[in-house]
Design goal:
Length: 224
């Protein structure tokens, strides 16, 4: 009898496959903001029917990566510079609040920073393997883990949709950083932030967050 632990992983559903495909193309820049996402073309490429493709696009619209235009179908979401700056400002306000609420943390009953450290390890691993989408996912989990240190369910709920909407700007920032600087620089920025948070000192952590540089390589005029 086969042990449940030895079962092969289940294959991706058709909806998951279509969602991953479009999301990867959007975050990698293969599909630029404003580009149409044609259902028929996507169906033909993936060899699936329109129903799972439509559901995938609906899910991606909830994440803010694509938008539906009445009678014109879907396109990659176009964010204005003002929208992006406002979202990053909100992200920083919530992260600052989380750090003020969280630190100093009691480490006598375990390592409170293990989730953030694990996400950073996943960023390193994905970067080494050239897996951009996995790196983007780990990047988002890292910031979720920083906010999660506060232990506030309502704060987590408020933070999640902002981070989803910032998927594309955050991914573009890391891509541009890798192009004009070094891929490892993006990892190092997050190592510095985690080291500051692990100091368990509110002042040091807030200063590092302020210098984190999430907009350093993001050319907002190219996203308007």
């Amino acid at each position: 009898m086969t042990s449940p632990m030895n079962k092969a992983p289940l294959p991706l559903s058709l909806v998951e496959m279509a969602t991953r495909q479009v999301r990867s193309e959007v975050l990698s820049g293969a599909l630029e903001p404003g580009s149409r996402v044609v259902e028929e073309t996507l169906c033909a490429r993936l060899g699936i029917s329109r129903a799972p493709v439509r559901e995938a696009l609906r899910l991606l619209a909830q994440q803010g990566l694509v938008e539906h235009l009445p009678r014109r179908g879907f396109r990659v979401t176009v964010w204005s510079s003002v929208d992006i700056l406002q979202l990053f400002e909100l992200r920083q306000v919530l992260e600052q609040h989380a750090i003020r609420q969280a630190l100093p943390l009691d480490s006598t009953h375990g390592d409170p920073f293990c989730v953030a450290r694990s996400a950073l390890d996943e960023m390193r691993d994905a970067d080494a393997r050239g897996e951009s989408l996995e790196k983007d996912d780990a990047h988002r989990r890292f910031h979720e883990a920083i906010v999660g240190l506060a232990g506030s369910h309502q704060l987590d709920l408020a933070y999640a949709p902002i981070l989803l909407k910032l998927q594309l700007p955050m991914a573009r920032n890391l891509r541009e950083e890798a192009r004009v600087a070094k891929p490892v620089d993006g990892i190092r920025r997050h190592e510095v932030l985690l080291e500051a948070v692990e100091s368990n000192d509110v002042g040091i952590a807030l200063a590092a967050l302020k210098e984190h540089g999430e907009l350093t390589y993001l050319h907002l005029e190219s996203i308007c």
